[in-house]
Write a structure and sequence with these properties.
The complex is a heterodimer of chains A (416) and B (301). Chain A has 416 residues and is of the alpha+beta class. Chain A contains 15 helices and 9 strands. Chain A folds into 3 domains: 55 residues, no CATH class; 125 residues, no CATH class; 209 residues, Orthogonal Bundle (MetI-like fold). Classes of the chains: A alpha+beta (416), B mainly alpha (301).
Chain lengths: 416, 301
Amino acid sequence: MRIRKRFIVKSAAMTALAVFIMFVILFPVYYIFIVSLEPGATLATTHLRLTPKHPSLESYRQVLFGLSGNRIMENFSGTITGQAVLKDGKLYVKQGVLKGKVKYGPFTGFTFSTPVSGISFNVGTKGETSGQLKGDVKGLVVLTSVDTNGTISFGLVRNLRLTKGTLGNLQVSGPLAERFILLKGNAVAHFTALGKFVNSAFFHYLKNSLILAGLAVVLTWLFAIPASYAFSRIKFFGRGHILYFYLMFTQVAGGLGIAGLIALYGIVVKLGLYNKLPVLSLIYAAGGVPFNTWLLKSYVDSISPDFDEAALIDGASYLQIIRYVLLPMALPGIATVSIFAFIGGWTEFILANLLLEQNNQPLAVWIWSMLSGINRGIQWSYFAAAALLFALPVFIMFMLAQNYIKSGLTLGGLKE
Amino acid sequence: MRVKKWVVLALILPGMLAFLFFNLWPIIYSIYLSFTNAKLGNFPIYSPGSGVKPLHFIGLANYRWILSDPGFREAFLWTWLFVATSVTLKVTVGLFLSLLYNSKYVKGKIIYRSLLIIPWALPLLFSVTVWRFMFDPVFGPINMILKSLGVSNPPNWVNNPNWGFVALNIIEVWLAYPFMMTVIISALQSVPDNLIEAAVIDGANYWQRLRHVIIPIVGKPIAFATILTSAASFQYFMVPYIYNASLFQNRFILLYGFLKAFGGVPNYGRAAAVMVIATLILAIYMYINVKITHLQEGAKG
């Protein structure tokens, strides 16, 4: 009975210690989450707060829907109303309002309105008259700068065409006589949530990240799947040496990657491949070849060779064996390799920063470059939200495939 | 099963060629560059107007310059110091956490263990920026806690090189403990229970059991993990680069080399020479360790 009691006391103490240490270790991740929920201004206090005082999603809203002022170029249709004069086949609009709405694409639902004066349409209709103009228009709107409250600080309307207008009892239609209408100061834009998202800095980088990581995954399949089959199933000269070399390489890959960076930079620039997204994907996939081949090879090893030998006897070719026998069975292994390739492409930023210009840079570079702008215009809360959004997909993927990934990360050793 | 050569080649060549071209060739090319006068103006593309001589062979001049550079010597020594401190910490913390979260006294350890994996699941860039925030002299919670504990003048973790070095050690332990823990716990679980029970019956206390029963069995996996993690410490680059690159310029050998090439005054030849030296050291270090511990046995199979 006394032993039992001692056990319980000791167990309670140890469990409390274990829980406490876990909280200490995980505190940074928790804290950054709390920071991301604080509206920017309240963070300026130098007080440690363990729960957010005014929790809000303001920072996330700013990251995801904050207007970045990216250039927008969209076709729109809309209306024009105002006082107009018809003279010598030309329709002069003196004081009117032009309203437009985008009908297709990611900016569907985007509307703007601007006062117009002193513009004219070549309508070709004879006669002289004046009065109230009402009409439908089509055109192209180009916005280069929009303030957060929706005021257009600079934009153009081009290719404007009056498709159907009525002036008194006359029907008028025709193209704009001027080359463009300037939108400035008093023009107002209204974005839908999707439009704001598409126009945010986050989306711009997200798009690049997705292309980069997605392409890296596809190339990784191409590189790792056939090779892993060969290494697992076919005995050939040098097989063991190559495998051993691959394994050693995976352990020093990080350092060698940095060591070869200068030369790689030189090679890429010399070949004229600078600022090309697919090239970077190719570099990522190439760098992952040893690791991914190893991982997938050990997975294929675990599939009984009876299956493919049976197929071989039935007259199947190697590609057919890979395609119809091994691929379906090795799917979990392929998924793991894909996740590794995706995470690699998603998180790499040294090469991306070195080999890409701003228009092609991925999220990781954005996060990294924001770090140096903190306290100089960028709030910690905004940064925290962006960084968490950046980390989220990686986190989810890791958690989904964690058992496979763990065995991959401790690759090579510890065969039990 | 008779296999034609071209089949094997067709299967392994796509990946291998990409690997050779983008990973091995740059390293060979680096060796060449380290013997040239490559710098901004003649590399990667020669621009005649820059006043720099075209790329040519200059023998061992880069190596001579580096070995006489106090910055390089400093970086070299600090890198090894970091290997020593961080590896000691990583192994100690890893061992401690493994024993704690594998202890029969701890209830609900499966849950804690799966939560403690979280740092592993986060991108390195994210983790380091989080820690950069933790250590922020003004907004960072660590200094806030220190202040509330009565430290009137808490250290500047971001701009003081020595405190920054301490911070990097803490970050590295935080980044590496999931790996160490996974390896050590799976090793601990392979220790047969009856062996420990026998030791208990023989009257061995906890430390004696740890020292004479558990460590000899789990020693090899721990040695394996230690070598890998020490290689990672030697190649330490990303963390100091994200944390505060200019502060650690003369503290980490790869960062030193990187900033020689892409820092303020690009001198690619010298940078390549630094990288070649670093690669050689790493290769020798790995070779010795692998020989000592027979790591390659794990590669078979």
